[in-house]
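queue> holo job accepted (fe (ii) ion)
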Amino acid sequence: MFLKEPLCCCTPKYTVIHTGVKAPVKVALTGDWHVTRIVSDKQRRFLKQKLQAIQPDLIILQGDLFDTPHSFDDLRLVAKLKKNLLACVKIAPTVMVIGNHDQVEPIMTPPKSRIDYLKHARKNVLDEWRRICKECGVKLLIDEWFEIKGLRIFGMWQGPEAYFAGPGKRGESIEEMRRHIKELGQEGVLKFRPKKAHWFAAHAPINELSNMKELAGFNVFSFGHTHGGCVPIVVDAVVDACGGHGGIVAPFQKWFPKHFMRGQETLPNGASFIVNAGMVMAQGSAPKPLHYINFIKAAEITEVILRD
Ligand SMILES: [Fe+2]
Ligand SMILES: [Fe+2]
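queue> job finished
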């Protein structure tokens, strides 16, 4: 019963200093909306209420806004998603990175092969995301930069292949993401500028890859993909207090605490690594009871303040 609605008012807040920005910049992170027919308007009310309270200079949408990319074929779902996007844009400039559910439909049975897996990826879906983002005034970042108030944000695209872990497996491919980051470095896309703050945004937390030399100039890393919004805050708090951290099964077939699940930590080079657990209301991609065990988190929007 409590899977359907956001029942908490959780807004983690982090301040990152020594970033080089002249005036403080406030960023709000949200994502994993997984818009479906059963996601009610309460999600949008939660979104609006929290964002209005934060009053950010920038909103980063961390991906998985649809539960399946085939939702583009359902005009009611497109309208529902657009309402959410417009609610964000009304409050602050908004950028978006693409999640796995935004491009590959969730599958219940692990794929037998790469070909079997790629059958579930929607063709030309980036064009559909470009169109909807343009219509709503959202800047879609597909291996692109966006700049605001001395802050440069790079949105990395983790394409369908990044979520193929191998035959018979579900999850992510760290090798594919490593390959892609190296390629971006070789192509000269990851260029840093003096006296600017640099922010790396992607959907699935890349954890150990954040120390790759190609990414050394980033002050902040932000991600989604780990899911919140499935239980009331009190349950979330109890699980957290017991050391569960709101989930057990982490990305890349790892387990918490080996893999970072949500919140903020400081990397050895001083950069901040932040995971927003999002506000998924119902999610059909994980088999039950794994679905309940893994996603014991309340909905959250993360507030980050960058200062010099
Ligand atoms: Fe998600
Ligand atoms: Fe995801």
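queue> The chain has one domain: 13-306.
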